[in-house]
């Protein structure tokens, strides 16, 4: 079967609503459509939009058009039609993001932290920070004898020195000595 006959069969299956033909058509032309979107997408929009979203929008629009409204005699004719649809969709988003004051991308400003850097700190530690802190805590605990580890655990739980002395059954000066020793290890 020649290329034009295979294309005619694919289009006929598409017009008939054959899911296999529709899927084949989408798979065959999706890379070209995605390339067309990428060529036309403004660099400042590339960080905000995925080209696959545009491709899916084009396919949704294309499949919604009644099949009797268009005919494609060649693969090039179909490709030209799909490219035009992609162009129109990209232009529509470009106008929305650059042409209206409400969504104007040129008015957007980056967020920076108080120290002026572009790194914004989360209000809670990250998972890796928690793991590192736990490893450091285990390392520090290992430097103390088993009897003093209870004092460290109570300290970590936020108890006052007086409460720790009472709960651990040791003097306040013992708690203070353990805390000083802990500070020496962390300094």
From TrEMBL:
Q: Which UniProt keywords apply?
A: DNA-binding, Sigma factor, Transcription, Transcription regulation
Q: Where is the RNA polymerase sigma-70 ECF-like HTH domain?
A: 6-178
InterPro entries named in the record: HTH_Sigma70_ECF-like, RNA_pol_sigma-70-like, RNA_pol_sigma_r2, RNA_pol_sigma_r3/r4-like, WH-like_DNA-bd_sf
Source taxon at top rank: Bacteria
The record's listing under Pfam families reads: Sigma70_ECF
Family from the record: Belongs to the sigma-70 factor family. ECF subfamily.
Task: Specify the protein name.
Answer: Helix-turn-helix domain-containing protein
Which organism was this protein described from?
Gemmata palustris
């Amino acid at each position: 079967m020649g290329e034009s006959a295979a294309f005619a069969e694919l289009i006929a299956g598409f017009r008939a609503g054959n899911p296999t033909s529709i899927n084949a058509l989408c798979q065959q032309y999706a890379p070209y459509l995605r390339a067309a979107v990428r060529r036309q997408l403004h660099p400042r929009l590339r960080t905000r939009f995925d080209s696959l979203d545009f491709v899916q929008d084009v396919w949704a629009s294309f499949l919604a058009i009644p099949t009797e409204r268009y005919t494609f005699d060649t693969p090039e004719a179909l490709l030209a039609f799909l490219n035009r649809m992609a162009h129109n969709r990209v232009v529509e988003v470009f106008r929305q993001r650059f042409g209206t004051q409400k969504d104007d991308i040129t008015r957007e400003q980056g967020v920076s932290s108080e120290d002026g850097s572009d790194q914004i700190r989360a209000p809670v530690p990250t998972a890796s920070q928690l793991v590192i802190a736990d490893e450091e805590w285990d390392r520090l605990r290992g430097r103390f004898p088993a009897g003093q580890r209870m004092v460290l655990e109570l300290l970590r739980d936020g108890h006052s020195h007086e409460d720790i002395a009472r709960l651990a059954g040791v003097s306040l000066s013992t708690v203070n000595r353990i805390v000083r020793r802990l500070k020496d290890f962390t300094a």
